[in-house]
Structure formats: C-alpha cells, structure tokens
Design brief:
Layout: H1 3-27, E1 41-42, H2 43-60, H3 66-78, H4 96-108, H5 116-130, H6 136-144, H7 151-160, H8 187-190, H9 199-212, H10 218-238, H11 249-261, H12 268-280, E2 287-288, H13 294-305, H14 314-327, H15 355-367, H16 373-389, H17 413-426, H18 432-452, H19 475-491, H20 498-511, H21 528-538, H22 545-559, E3 571-573, E4 577-579, H23 584-600
Antiparallel strand pairs: 1-2, 3-4
Helix pairs in contact: 1-23, 2-3, 2-4, 2-11, 4-5, 4-7, 5-6, 6-7, 9-10, 9-11, 11-12, 13-15, 13-23, 15-16, 15-17, 16-18, 17-18, 17-19, 19-20, 19-21, 21-22, 21-23
C-alpha cells in the first residue's frame, strides 16, 4: 500500500473508533444533561463505614445498621486479594493501611470467627508487610511521614476496634484540636500537622484521642477540656447539609466513629454523618471513595468533545453551560474559607472549591460557544479566584494559598498549567485590571513549570499516580497533561521555552512501551488512559509520527477488545488513596482520537 493509501486507511480506522467512543460518551450523559461518572468501590471506605455505623449502634444500644455492616463485611471478604490483603480498589495492589483498616472492621464487628480464614490471611499479610503485628503502628506512621492527616485516623481506628490491645490508645499520637479555635488565617503560621481539608478530622479525632487517652501534661488537658464545646461547634459549622465532609466516605466515617466512641452518637454531626453513610452505600454493599466527580468528568468530557465541533448540539451546549454556571460558588466557603468564584469536583454539598476544577470549568465554558454576560461575569470571578491562589513560587496549589509544604496544599505542575491555559483562552474577554494581573502571573507560572520539570523532561502530577511505577508516580500522565496545555499556549502566541517542550516530548518517547502503548513510566504496563494522553501530547509534533503511529495502532486494537474501557486505578484521592473512574478511558480516548483525526484532515 502506498503512503497515501496507508494514511487514508489510518484516518478511516480512527474515524470509525472515534465515532463509537463519542457515541458511548454522549450516551453516558445523565438525564440532567451532564455527566456524573461512576467511581470504583473502595475496600478502605467500606471498612471504615462499617466501623462507624457499628459504633453508632453500640453507642445507642440498637441494631439499626446491622445489615449495612453485614453486607459491607461480606463484600470485603469476597474481594480479598490473593496475597491476603486489600488494595484501595479491586484492581489495586494490597497495601498496609487498607488491609489494617479491613482487619479493624472485622474486629470492631466481633466477626473474626465468622470470617476466620479471611482474618487470618489479613494478619499474615500485615505481619509480612510490617514485620510483626507489634510493628504495625510504626510502619503506618513511616508510610506517611510528617503528614498525620491519614496516619493518625488509621491508628485511632485500630485502637477503637481493639486491634492494638489494652494499651492501644496510648499508641495514638495526639492531635491539637484546640488549634481549630484560632482564626483560619493563622493556620499556616500554626503549622497544623494535617492539610487544609482535614479540619473535621483534626477536631473529631483529636477530641476522641483526648477522651480515651488524655495528655499527661496538666496544662494541655485543661486547654483541651475547655476547647471541646467550641471546637465541636466549629465542626458542626463545617459539615455540609447532607452530612458528608468533602463527599468523602473515609473522612465522614472517621468523624462519625470518633464522636460515637465518646458517647456522642446523638450529636448532630454524628447523626448527619450516619445518614450520609447510609445514603452513599452502593447496591453491592460497598462504598466508593467519594460520591461522584460530576463537575470534573463533565468538564473533561466537554474538552474531549471539543475536537469535534458538532458533537454536542446547541441545546446540549446551552444545558451544560447553565449547569456549570450553577456550580460556581457565590459565597465564602465555610470549610476552607475560599472566596467566591471557584468550582469543586462535584455538584453535591460536600464539595470544596479547588484550582483544578476551576480551571477545568473555565476551559469547558470556553468550548461551549460564544459567551453571554453571565458567562463573562463567571469567568472573571473564576480567573480572579485562580490569580488569588497563586503561590510565591509562581505555581498553583489545590485548595489554599500559603498553607505550606504538605502534599495537597503545595504548588503542582499539572494544576498550574491548567490554570495557565484557562487564563490564556479567556484573556481577550477580561477587563484591564485582570489583564494586568495576568501579564504578571503568566510568566511566574511558566517559571514555576520550568523549575518543576525533572532533568529527564518529566513533570510529576499530584492527583494521579501509578502503582507499578517508581515511588508510585505517574510521570507520563503529568508530562502529557503539561505538554498538551503548553502546545495550546503556543498556538495562542504565548512565548514558551522550546527546550522545555522538547525535553517533555523526548521523555514521552523514551517511556513508550514495546507494544506501542504507554503506562505511568517506561517499562510499566500500558493503559488506555495513559496511552491516549501521550498520543494527544505528541500529536502536535510531526517529527514524532513514527511513535504516534505505533501508539495509535495499540490504542485502536485495545479499543476493539472486550476490556477496552476497563479503567485503570491511576487516580489519587486525598491521602494518596487509589481510585478509578469508569469514564476516564472513554474520555481520554475520545479526546486523543478527536485530535489525531483533526490533524489528519
């Protein structure tokens, strides 16, 4: 076949598969005209939810949640890995934290005999991983380092379930919940041992530890006794209407079990937390890590379909525009104190405005057609919100500016470039004041990206990873996302350092697998998500056509297979919990194929 015939055949193949993925993505829209997605079940979420609901029953002397607990434990028993442990999803490797919490769940329910072999396998896994049962606490603490956001709740749960023995509470590090009485503006200077989103855990778990194992320091005891009621009031103010802190099962369950263990199961926060857990359980008895990522997957889907201008009808675009505008926060958020103007990952009450979703919403609104006055006002507020978030290093953090170096509050490259792209597409529509601020912010953000790029050309993302890669990092995801946006910035006449682009592309070429696809790094098992992102990133550079052709061949073959849309657990949730989202492979494949076809026209 001659070159022209080969190109024609490839175009035809891409078009055929793209039509199928586009149809499937459009069919995944819900009745309200946007996307909700479907998050994976989580062993960790299921374990802590059963403990929390069981603790509510023990405190009240009732059995209202007996069936929830039984169904959850049965699901856990049915999904144990071959090595005797549990991972964060059913497609994840076993890890110590999740396995320890599942072990705690069976202990808290008094079901060791009923699930004897499963519990024995869990104990064997913990002993192999931690060295011994006695070493489980130091091993968990070592895994999280100075960030106690998740290590303390895990150890607290082990103590609560009786897994740490009679002196279990003595092994749980205290949390200074009394600091929650101070103004929010002080939190950075106070160097809280948890990240900004974890204030409910700081309050509830800190109080629980104080209740079960008070400090030997008499001054600390008095201060904490005095601050209990006031910080409980703060906790109640932080709780959203539906009871779910961040829409997150783990965080809500930790708070609920903590209050119940102190005899506060009748407290309004505990009651609403229990209601959230009852409402969020899945049909099979398990719980996901979060209720949904509706705003995130909707903006991703809109951007993926943007390579096909007619994929969405005018009516669908208007419906999506109206829905997105409704998701923008119009008041100061009670949880983080975030100013109006941002978007969260979900359309539910537990969401918190964040930089990635705000940038995503701004880009999606741009792709939905000529803006009206309401859209312009929303865009200006969103752009200003991102500008106010920019750190001194020029980068953009997830939630709060200036909170320090703990993981989810520091600048990160994939969010920074996302904000850059959002600022740039709307720059011509913004007023002069915002324009001047952008003129200063854009070079600073680009400087941050230059500094954050590794010597091999890669950028490491914060919110995505790969269990099979070194340090569980996903250099392919991070590099591809940054490169996609940088190429877009070049098209919009932003001056980008050429060597930075070249190093990124060279990294992706070096990371391509022998089969033509990409995983999280060189030599890592390939996936639809990572391959699609790498292809979209390299599609702008004709000199890489050979690598792109190999990747396209792999992707098209994969999308024709039975498990083509089997999502990979590359998502990282709070406290580095793995998840997968069923829509990710469909979204990323549609976006890559749409761009590739547009390049061939």
């Amino acid at each position: 076949m001659n070159g022209q015939g080969s190109t024609s055949a490839k175009f035809s193949s891409i078009t055929s598969v793209l039509e199928r993925t586009t149809s499937a993505l459009l069919a995944a829209m819900n009745e309200q005209g946007h996307w909700s997605g479907e998050l994976s079940s989580s062993a960790l979420s299921t374990a802590v939810a059963t403990i929390a609901l069981g603790e509510l029953d023990r405190q009240s002397g009732a059995n209202h949640h007996e069936q929830f607990v039984a169904n959850g434990l049965r699901w856990l028993a049915d999904h144990v890995n071959e090595d005797g442990g549990w991972g964060d999803t059913i497609r994840s490797q076993s890890n110590l934290s999740t396995t320890a919490l599942v072990w705690a769940a069976f202990g808290a329910a008094g079901m060791d005999r009923d699930f004897e072999s499963v519990v024995a396998s869990a104990v064997n896994y913990i002993e192999r991983t931690a060295g011994s049962l006695e070493n489980v606490v130091p091993a968990i603490e070592a895994a999280y380092g100075k960030d106690r956001t998740f290590s303390v709740p895990i150890v607290m749960t082990l103590a609560l379930s009786g897994r740490l023995g009679k002196n279990g509470w003595g092994q749980v590090r205290a949390l200074p919940f009394e600091l929650a009485m101070f103004p929010r503006s002080w939190f950075g200077a106070l160097q809280l041992p948890v990240v900004s989103y974890a204030l409910p855990a700081l309050i509830a778990i800190g109080q629980t530890i104080h209740f079960h194992s008070p400090s030997k320091n008499p001054v600390a005891r008095v201060v904490r006794d005095v601050s209990r009621n006031r910080t409980l009031q703060t906790l109640e103010q932080l709780q959203p209407a539906n009871g779910g802190f961040l829409e997150a099962t783990p965080l809500t369950a930790f708070v609920t079990m903590s209050l119940a263990s102190m005899g506060l199961g009748g407290n309004a926060v505990a009651r609403k937390g229990g209601e959230f857990l009852r409402q969020s359980v899945l049909a099979d008895g398990s719980w996901p890590i979060d209720t949904n990522l509706a705003t995130w997957v909707t903006t991703l889907s809109i951007k993926a379909l943007a390579h096909q201008p007619d994929a969405l009808s005018p009516t669908e675009k208007q419906t999506l525009r109206e829905w997105l505008l409704k998701q923008q926060y119009q008041t100061v958020h009670p949880y983080t104190g975030a100013a109006p103007g941002g978007w969260a990952w979900t359309d539910l009450p537990g969401g918190v405005p964040d930089a990635d979703d705000t940038a995503g919403a701004l880009l999606a609104l741009y792709e939905l057609g000529e803006p009206d006055e309401a859209t312009i006002r929303a865009v200006e507020a969103g752009a200003r919100w991102l500008l106010d978030l920019q750190n001194r290093d020029g980068g953009i953090p997830t939630f709060c500016r200036g909170w320090g170096t703990l993981p989810f509050d520091r600048s990160t490259p994939e969010i920074t470039v996302h904000a850059l792209r959002a600022w740039t597409v709307w720059r011509a529509h913004l007023d002069a004041v915002l324009g001047r601020r952008l003129a200063s912010a854009i070079p600073r953000a680009l400087h941050f990206l230059s500094k954050a790029q590794r010597g091999d050309g890669a950028w490491i993302p914060l919110w995505f990873g790969n269990e099979n890669a070194a340090a569980h990092e996903n250099a392919v995801y991070g590099t591809a996302q940054v490169l996609i946006s940088l190429n877009e910035l070049i098209r919009r006449k932003v001056d980008i350092d050429a060597p930075m682009i070249e190093r990124a592309a060279e990294f992706l070429l070096a990371a391509q697998g022998r089969d033509g696809g990409w995983g999280g790094d060189a030599g890592v098992q390939t996936s639809v998500e990572e391959t699609a992102l790498a292809l979209e990133a390299l599609a702008d550079s004709p000199q890489y056509h050979s690598a792109v052709d190999r990747g396209v061949k792999w992707l098209l073959a994969k999308l024709d297979s039975a498990d083509s849309l089997k999502a990979a657990p590359i998502g990282l949730y709070f406290a580095r919990l793995w998840y997968f989202e069923q829509l990710y492979p469909l979204i990323f494949a549609t976006s890559a194929l749409g761009k590739l076809r547009s390049k061939q026209r």
